[in-house]
Amino acid sequence: MTFVVVESCIKCKHTDCVAVCPVDCFYEGENMLVIHPDECIDCGVCEPECPVDAIRADTEPGLEKWLELNAELAGVWPVITEQKDPPSDAHLWKDTENKFELLSRNPGDG
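Structure (tokenized):
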């Protein structure tokens, strides 16, 4: 089992999860984070830290697409090891649904 970052992270990109991760398995894109499924140790400390409920256990139904996306993008985005401020407009995107088309595949700064 691993944890996976889902759609609600897009355009919100809070990094509270990064601050508590003991194995640095988060990777940063331009407008979201992902978890490397082979590096996650399933400790679960990141899940309650996310203010937009974007981290889920991969055992939840319907997350196959997100698990695949997390694995793919963690292979090309830089690791992020320190908490950063969220985007200034993150609060505007918190309750927005169907954000997948807004996902940028560009890497973040790491």
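Strands lie at 3-5, 26-28, 33-35, 55-57. The radius of gyration is 12 Å.
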